[in-house]
Design goal:
This protein has five helices and eight strands. The chain is α+β, with helices and mostly antiparallel strands and about 180 residues long. The chain is globular, with a radius of gyration of 16 Å. The two termini are about 25 Å apart. About 35% of the residues are buried. Strands 1-2-3-4-5-6-8-7 form an eight-stranded mixed beta sheet, sandwiched between helices. Helix 1 crosses helix 2 (about 45-50).
Length: about 180
C-alpha cells in the first residue's frame, strides 16, 4: 500500500506496533463518540481495530513527521454515495485532541483527495459529519467539498443522528476548487 507525505505528516499503513499510540487518543471520549464509535477500552482493543478495521485498503495511520508518533487515522472507508456514474469513495478521519486546531487533518485530507483522484481513479470523493461535529465540518469546508444532503443515521450513541454529506467531484478538483486551503 502507498505511503503518502505532506509537509508535516506521513500517511502510512497501520501496524500492530501502533496500538499504544492509537489507544492513547482512541480512549479519549472526545474522539470516538463524535465520529460514531466508542472509546477504546484497552491497548488490546486498539490492536484488534488495527488488525480488522484499519487493515482495509487505503486506510492510513497519520504520523507526525517530527516525532514519528501516530496521532490519528485517515483514509477511504470503502463506501461511495454517488449515482454509480463513476467510482466514488468516502474519506474518514480521527485525530488526537492534543493536535486539534493545527490544520493537520485538512493537510492529510488534501493529500488523500489527490491520491483518490490521481491514483485510485475516483470520480467523486465524499465526506460526512454528524451535525454537532463542528470541527469536522470545518475540515470538510476547508477541503473544498460541497454540501449535498442530510440523512438521519443511527449509531450506538444516538438512534436518530443528523449526518451531513458532502461531495467533491474530480472535475471541480481539477479546476482548482479544492486548492484554496
Amino acid at each position: 500500500m502507498a505511503v503518502l507525505e505532506t509537509r508535516r505528516l506521513v500517511l502510512r499503513p497501520f501496524t500492530e506496533l501502533d496500538a499504544e499510540d492509537l489507544y492513547a487518543y482512541a480512549r479519549d471520549p472526545r474522539v470516538g463518540p463524535i465520529a460514531g464509535w466508542k472509546p477504546h477500552g484497552s491497548i488490546e482493543e486498539s490492536r484488534e481495530i488495527i488488525r480488522t478495521v484499519f487493515a482495509a485498503p487505503n486506510v492510513f495511520a497519520v504520523v507526525e513527521k517530527a516525532t514519528g508518533k501516530v496521532i490519528g487515522s485517515a483514509g477511504f472507508v470503502g463506501q461511495g454515495h454517488g449515482d454509480g456514474a463513476g467510482p466514488s469513495d468516502e474519506i474518514g478521519y480521527a485525530l488526537s485532541p492534543a493536535y486539534w486546531g493545527r490544520g493537520l487533518i485538512p493537510e492529510a485530507v488534501e493529500r488523500l483527495i489527490a491520491y483518490g483522484f490521481q491514483d485510485l481513479g475516483l470520480r467523486e470523493i465524499w465526506c460526512a459529519h454528524y451535525q454537532e461535529n463542528v470541527r469536522s465540518r470545518r475540515v470538510i469546508e476547508k477541503s473544498g467539498f460541497t454540501y449535498m444532503f442530510t440523512e438521519h443515521l443511527s449509531d450506538e450513541f444516538f438512534p436518530d443522528r443528523p449526518t451531513l454529506f458532502y461531495v467533491l467531484l474530480r472535475e471541480d478538483w481539477e479546476r482548482g476548487a479544492s486548492h484554496h486551503g
